[in-house]
Amino acid sequence: GIPSMPAPVLGARRPTRQLQVGKVGVGSRSPISVQSMTTTLTSDVNATLQQIAELTAAGCDIVRVACPSQDDADALPAIAAKSPIPVIADIHFQPRYVFAAIEAGCAAVRVNPGNIKKFDDRVKDIARAAKDHGTPIRIGVNAGSLDARLLKKYGKATPEALVESALWEASLFAEHDFHDLKISVKHNDPVVMVRAYELLADACDYPLHLGVTEAGPAFQGTVKSAVAFGALLRQGIGDTVRVSLSAPPVEEVKVADQILQSLNLRPRKLDIVSCPSCGRAQVDVYKLAAEVSAGLEGMEVPLRVAVMGCVVNGPGEAREADLGVASGNGKGQIFVKGEVVRTVPESKIVETLIEEALRLADAFDTS
Ligand code: SF4
């Protein structure tokens, strides 16, 4: 087999209470989980289950479904029963759907205290129903729907306002001896969001669900989420994450998965190390990297593949990787585990790398 060194880690997780969201543990004793949210009509059970299957295949651990109508609430039992991953019902405005979701066997329920009118009066009943069914609750505070009282007090959705809203709601549950809570305090500005989670982390020991809300289209949202999550995860803050993109939810899962892999918080799978190219390049590095990446997509083994444009850093990086190519003079030197195993013409680089990658992947399977 292939020897592997333990991956360096960022630092200790912030100790939290531990929750069970269906089969997925959430809290500092569990790996950080990835969440996303379906975009289908929840009432369309088949379409929703189809999308959940796609999300699961992409690496999603927990899925959230919206529940804005009675038809959606009616679909929850079938979805919760058939989904391969735990389903969280996302409830705004209507406390009665909270009870429906708990009865339906959803693995958790998300409530937004800013949006559920007269919510505070219902906490006792919700806490009892949730306790009876062992259903955790996420208190999901969102800058765009902050409690009117706090908006007035703070003037806008400041970190302090978001945290006060969340802790107030948590205290109502705590009064009824209900502590199976996780909390989010989302804002679209990563700086405000990071500060809010830092304050929240200091003020409680509930597990935290990280998210930059309304983060934007794929490129901007990816960058915002990556920097914000990185700043928090470096401090051990964050137990479950959701990347929000104005893009299909599978993309959210891929981004979240890559963020966690990059920080060694999830086992690394395929890692392509490719150079940015420069005036020394003797091959079209972008094309080569894209073709190798496409050819190896979906490979589940922790393989580091170096694609380098010339002989300056090429042989060094290619040697450090499991597999690599250093190009020059219309040829590619193919490295496996630090040794040049072949030199092939440029036109054969991609197929040779893929062939060698498959051979190495087989070695993982049998080791
Ligand atoms: Fe430039 Fe070569 Fe470095 Fe690529 S490996 S960036 S081509 S010097």
Short description:
Its cofactor is [4Fe-4S] cluster. The protein is α/β, with parallel strands linked by helices. 43% of the residues lie in helices and 19% in strands.
Coarse morphology: elongated
Give the structural class.
alpha/beta
The helix count comes to: 12
What distance separates the N and C termini? 5 Å
Please count the beta strands (DSSP E, at least 2 residues each). 15
Attached small molecules: iron/sulfur cluster
Helix content: 40-55%
Averaging pLDDT over every residue, what do you get?
Answer: 92
Which percent band covers the strand fraction? 15-25%
Strand order of the largest sheet: 8-7-6-5-4-3-10-9
**Unreliable residue runs:** none
Question: Can you describe this structure?
Answer:
- The protein is α/β, with parallel strands linked by helices and 367 residues long.
- The chain is built from 12 helices and 15 strands.
- Strand 14 (331-336) and strand 15 form a beta hairpin.
- Helix 2 (70-82) packs parallel to helix 3 (95-103), helix 3 (95-103) runs parallel beside helix 4 and helix 7 runs parallel beside helix 8.
- The longest helix is centred in the C-terminal third of the chain and has 18 residues, at 349-366.
- Bound molecules: iron/sulfur cluster.
- Iron/sulfur cluster (SF4) binds at residues 275-278, 280-281, 308-310, 312-314.
- InterPro entries: Dihydropteroate_synth-like_sf, IspG_bac, IspG_bac-typ, IspG_C, IspG_TIM, NO2/SO3_Rdtase_4Fe4S_sf.
